Amino acid sequence: MSTDQPAPQLAHQIASQPGELERILSAPLPQNLVERVGRARRIWLVGTGTSQHAAELGAWMLHDAGRAAHAMSSMHFVNWAPPINTRDALILVSHNAGTETAFAGAAWSLAAEAGLQVISVTRQEGRLPDAIETVAKETSHTYTLSYTAALLQLARLAHALGAPSFPPEVVARVPRAVREALDHPGTGSIPQPDRLLVLSGEGPASVTAREGALKVREAARFPAEGYDVEYLLHGHAVPLNASDHLVTLAPPDTQGLTLGVEHAARTAGVAVTRIEETAELPPLLAQIPLTVRLQLLALRYAMERGQNPDIAIEPPWDDELLWSIGSPDR
């Protein structure tokens, strides 16, 4: 991609996040949907790809409310369904209202037919009913804005169900933290390694590591992997060498394992960069601006490599029959 071409849509979507998050905070959650989820004994959060990452962090947010919340992929929920009953609720997280991911639509249908309380966290003007809306449909395949918006709505939902960590005065700090991340991302010194970019973190930061790696792969078509720091230590770090670059994420770093892995990596000759979110936010909410920093890294890699980050899925992967597998309409 030459420098005289217009900025990709991904750049506009990343930059729009502070304003869009402020807009979301200005509107109340649908109280009827909060009450429906609140009546559930267990809550299943389901999504695919980036939406699954949002589901995982959303489940942790609901744990803060003392709720039995479980996250899994849409395909897992459909083909290997857990024991569910009418006392449960399903929260489907979907960028595009279940219209472009076959198993997301199938998860909605399965849960509804089983008598669960079913709601969605999805884009504006989507086809799914009972939706907590986020933003308009994104114009780049590398989804960014809809992810951070979904996390914000899930935090608000968790607070409405009793989570003490996400009151309005705390979530109101998120747009400002995102703006600071855009202005000072702290990723400019991370070069493209010769072989592999590895991102790692503890707990919620491990989800951000996987999300960041996914953005780098989608936007820049560069090999990147994201790991939980303990999982990285238990074997996955073995082949890393000077051809790779390790990016560690915090918070959290509860017992200092991330710091210990950094030291071991440097001793093995691996370059290491730590990205630490300094905004005054609980660790789960801190993942929002931390993710934005990695979105900017993915965008920079894409521009440096001459890739179009707005078209991530191309043939032969962009095959209608392939993507329709698992659809409830098939």
Whole-number tally of structural domains: 2
Spatial order of the strands forming the largest sheet: 2-1-3-4-5
**CATH domain class of the largest domain:** Alpha Beta
Q: Main beta sheet, described?
A: 5 strands, parallel
Low-pLDDT stretches: none
User: What fold name goes in the CATH topology slot of the largest domain?
Assistant: Rossmann fold
Report on this model:
With 330 residues, the chain is α/β, with parallel strands linked by helices. It is built from 14 helices and nine strands. The strands form two sheets. Strands 2-1-3-4-5 form a five-stranded parallel β-sheet, sandwiched between helices. A four-stranded parallel β-sheet has the order 7-6-8-9, with helices on both faces. The longest helix has 23 residues. The chain starts with 8 loop residues before the first helix and ends in a 6-residue tail after the last helix. The model has no long low-confidence stretch (mean pLDDT 95).
